[in-house]
Amino acid sequence: MKNRFSEFSIYSPFLQFLLLIIVLFFLIHLTKKLTRSYIVKNAIEPHRRKLILNLSYFLYYTLALFISLIIFGINFKEVIVFASSILAVLGVGFFAQWSILSNLTASIILFFYHPMRIGDTIKIIDKDFDLQGTVKNITGFYVLLYMPDEKREITIPNTIILYKGIELIKKQKNS
């Protein structure tokens, strides 16, 4: 006689997938707590917290997708072929749009190593660009600069911010 719980062994794909979902939610919760404490400790802007969380979520979900494909019987070699095909298509697309790739790379460098922050007033030191304004936003492709003298906002590609000299103008403290 067959036990009615025999199909719910720990080796069944359904329970493995359920365990994967539980681990995924635990990792997301842990990442939120660690990111929040790190941001408070190091005084990092909220928009950077959102970017860190979005990148970690993307990594978690991608990893969970591949693990769930393996759990439900997709051959690991087929998953690798599929992933490498996707990466090859992305690589060709990025090579075709080299400026997009350079702006994304510049945004990562600006995010981690540049002293410029949202709210800072900067001046681009270059003979071609005579721009000075307040940084309103830093995205993956451009920096939004508000120029109060002309009352306009302009977007500057991240590569220009990275490759040109930038003067950080100190904020005046009202006393």
TrEMBL record:
Subcellular location: Membrane
Record keyword Transmembrane helix present: yes
Mechanosensitive ion channel MscS domain: residues covered: 100-162
Gene3D superfamilies: 1.10.287.1260, 2.30.30.60
Transmembrane segments: 12-30, 51-74, 80-113
Membrane-protein topology: Multi-pass membrane protein
InterPro entries attached to this UniProt entry: LSM_dom_sf (IPR010920), MscS_archaea/bacteria_type (IPR045275), MscS_beta-dom_sf (IPR023408), MscS_channel_2nd (IPR006685), MscS_channel_TM-2 (IPR011014)
Keyword Ligase on entry: no
Keywords, alphabetical: Membrane, Transmembrane, Transmembrane helix
UniProt name for this protein: Mechanosensitive ion channel
Biological source species: Tenacibaculum tangerinum
Taxonomic path: Bacteria, Pseudomonadati, Bacteroidota, Flavobacteriia, Flavobacteriales
